[in-house]
Specification:
Radius of gyration: 14 Å
Shape: globular
Number of strands: 0
Largest sheet: none
Order of helices and strands: HHHHHHHHHH
Number of helices: 10
Length: 154
């Protein structure tokens, strides 16, 4: 991913592999320690039109945000804004909306992140996801959990 940052297909496959590897806690921690988060976020910001890449990126960030070190790295590298932008850019992509909500909710597990999530438009993105996908239970559940993590009682 580092050698070919402008090659969309390489970045899509790389994000997908990071998502798969991030399922295991030990792998998730290792991804953060070796600098995988900035590379993932660079791919997402370089290829905002790729729905597949944005979905894999949000899926990976959802898992990575369960680790305190990774959570800080996501925030420090502009990940909150990148997640929100993915949700705005792909309003009809169920996977992007669900994983975006879940990633923001996992980041919100740290109350220090609430203001930054709100300032980045995260609450608006979560509410839009729920309003525009009222028939999608997975999105509604993810949005509800994200709002609860932010301290709201929807």
């Amino acid at each position: 991913m580092r050698r070919h940052p402008t090659e969309r297909r390489i970045q899509e496959k790389g994000c997908e592999k990071l998502w798969i590897q991030s399922w295991e806690d030990e792998n998730s921690a290792a991804i953060g320690r070796v600098g995988g988060i900035p590379i993932l976020l660079l791919a997402m910001s370089t290829h905002p039109a790729s729905q597949a890449l944005q979905q894999s990126g949000c899926e990976a960030l959802r898992n990575l945000a369960l680790n305190d070190y990774n959570r800080d790295s996501i925030k420090e590298n502009g990940g909150i804004n990148i997640i929100v932008q993915a949700m705005i850019k792909h309003p009809d992509a169920i996977g992007v909306q669900q994983c975006g909500c879940t990633a923001l909710g996992n980041l919100a597990a740290c109350s220090d992140f609430h203001l930054e999530i709100a300032n980045a438009g995260g609450l608006h993105a979560i509410m839009n996801a729920a309003q525009q996908n009222q028939e999608e239970e997975c999105i509604l559940r993810a949005a509800y959990q994200a709002l609860r993590a932010m301290g709201y009682d929807p």
